[in-house]
Each structure stands twice: as C-alpha cells, then as structure tokens.
Amino acid sequence: MNPLARLDQKFVWHPFTQMRDWLRREPLVIKKAQGAVLTDAKGREYIDANSSIWTNLHGHRHPRINRALSRQLRRVAHTSALGFANEPASLLAAELVRAAAPISKRSRPSRLNKVFFSDDGSTAMEVALKMSYETARRSGLSRRPRFLSLQGAYHGDTVGAVSLGHIDLFHKAYNGLLFGAGEAMSPYCYRCPFNRARPAREDARLTRRCEWECVGKVEQTMSKARTVGRPFTSFVVEPLMQGAAGMIPQPEGWLSRVAELCRGGGISIIADEVMTGFGRTGVRDARAARRGRLPLFACERESVRPDYLVVAKGLTGGYLPMAATLTTQDVFNVFLGEYEEFKTFFHGHSFTGNQLGAAAALESLALLQERREEDRRLRLQRSLSDQLRRLWALPEVGDIRQVGLVAGIELVRNWKTREPFDLRERAGIRVCETMTRHGVLTRPIGNVVVLMPPYCVTDEQVVRMVDAVERGVRALSR
Fold it and tell me: How far is Cα 23 from Cα 444, in angstroms, rounded to an integer?
C-alpha cells in the first residue's frame, strides 16, 4: 500500500464516508492535477467529472489564478476583518455586487449591495439565517421567525443549515439539536404524484402532464401556516436545481411562480447558490443563446430577486474555502445604530475576507465574464447534452436531468416501471467504481450519478465521461 494511503487510513476521518468500507481497500491518493485531469500517487490519470465536489470552475492549476495568488502572497496572506479592511476583499465585494446586479435590476426594494464574507456554504447559510431571523424580529414581522424549505432540502452541515434540511439519512440523527423548519413540496417531475405522463425516454420535465399542483402545494403550506398564526418569514431554495437531493431540477416557470407567492405573502427569499452559482446552470437553450452577458446566477434565468444570495464552492474557482452572503441595504439598515444600542450583527469568522481567497475569487470572476470563457461554457453545455442522449438506450437509466453544465442520471431497475434500486444495493456507488476503473472520477448521490465537470473540459473528455457512465450502468446487470 502507498505510504500516504496508509497514513490516511491510520489518521484521517473522511466526510460522508462509512469508514469501515474505507478501511477495507487502498484509497486513491491524488498527487497532482492539471486542467480537468487528476493524477494519483501511482501515476494514473482521471477526468475530474464532478469538479472536485462541485467547486472547480476553470480547471486545476489555472495559470491566471496561480499568478493572482502568487502576487497576493508577495503582499500579505491574511489579516483580520475585525477592525481592518483589505484591498482584495474590498474589490471582491464590489465585483460581487456588480455581478449580482442583473438579478435585481427590475425589482424593488433595493438591490443586493452588501456583502458579508465567511468560509464555506454552510457558514454563509448561517449568516443568511441569522440576518433574516433578526431582521424579521426587529422589523416587527414576527417575534419567532420561521423558515420554509423544500422536500429533500440540503443547505449545509452547521446546526442552523441542518435545521433547514429534510433528508433523514443526513439530518435525523441531529433532531435534538435543531429548530423546526417547514417543508414544502419539491417539484420532482420524474416522481411527482401529480404528473400524469407515462414514462418516456426524455427528461420528465419536458413530458410532464400536470396543472402546477406542486406550486399549489407550496401555496397551501404557506397559507396553512398563516391560518394557524405561525407564518413563514423566509423561504430557502436552491434555484433551478436541488443538488444533494439528487440533482432535482425545477421545471421552467416554477421558481418565478413560487417567488411571486413569497412576495405576495411578505416572505423573504434566501437563494442558496452555493452549487448553482457562477455559471453552473448555463442558459435555457445553448444553441439559441443570446449575445451579450451570460447569467452568472440561477436566479437570473427566471428574473427572481432574492433578499439574500448565498455563494461559496466556485467563488474562488475551487482554490480556497471562501463564501459570501449578499443582501440589501434594507437588511443592512436594521443593524445600524449607536454603539450603546447593541444592534451589531454579532457573528464572524477568523478568516472572513481572507486576502488569498479574495484574490483567487477576483481572477475567477474576471475569467467568467470574458467572451471566450462564456463561449466555452456554451460549447460544454451543448456537448454534454449531445452525449447524454445515448444513455436513454439503457433500461437502467430512468431519467437524465441537465441544467446547464450540471447533469444527474437517475438509475432504476427498469425505466418502464421507475422502480428504484434499494440504497443498500449501492447502485450509484457501483457505477462510479466502474467509472474510476475507466479513468473518470465522480461521486453519486444515492442512485443518481452526477456529472459536473470543470469548464475547461474538452469535447473528447465529455465523450470519455459519458462512455464511463455507460460502461458503469451496463455493468449493473452483469
């Protein structure tokens, strides 16, 4: 066994991992990377098909981000944000506000123009929760603010973020630590009880036959809460696609309809774009994409303006842990007062506004908005769509869900019945293990195989990724 693998098994406890299984075999040790390719300690190469858990946007060791970090290292690596400002964090805040401007340009009240930095998606969500909770209390909306999220919701691992979650496998063990959050119906077209369409070899969102009952159920949940005197004050949602729920995409129009319900009921919107932000959700039609700036945030696709925008993962291009919560002047004003009034937002992180993270994020944002890079994302969206079509020929593929540069392939016993595999059968894991043997790395979500490559991936590498999925699915029946 590789000595590094031996050290890992002796000392490291891995996230979301059954460590008994981990200790049964030699772990793969990544030693280096370039672009979309990872290399292990034995010199074997793999395509990074999930962008190193949804974080890497432009590829590994991108020369421009490397140079940005090198320049910043010659100045200062980190200073406290408690009592001091710094150059890259100040510039990044301004750039994030500018990047988010299209979300709110046609809406009122004021646009997203305040930025609070933190460390990762969970902590950025905690910031949004605390801000929205205290804003509702101080403005007289509610003495006990309540949050609403979707079935299958996953918004992070800190206690507040876990409280919003509705995946028993991840969250049930911590029930004693959590506050209660409301649960609204998720628009899971493939398994929706209101979808009257027969199983077909096409994305279930496109073949669905329904009357938007899923939106009606959200409205019903909100209305019932008001009737019993416990209205929701904030709605938390991953726009366009729920990630850890199993890559559950929302049909076109769902997000804008639910946003209207929130506005009509005085409910603030917290958009969790930890996974969906920074170009991941692409455009509605990559073949007919308009000229001009491509959307950076999923909310833009349906002209929805959140009161809080939570970003992380791809913020630094996948280089360093950094996150941000954007909100409005109105929210900011709630926390303004004289010192003795103690209206301060009492929350913080040691590495808030870290200079290295901010420097990487600034360069990543600059790359994202260049025409050449936008064209690259359009090509990747088209290429991924073209290659995924051939997987419909496999009887164990029940649904293929693509939103921009994100795809989820749901595995079933037979597509005609939609019967799921029992999680104990490890169908998704087995497919991904086969993919690893064919030089492609990704991680499943239960019975859903995820493809979310870096934007630098080539057409040839996309073909290899989908080839590996096909091999893995075919191996299920052997």
Answer: 20
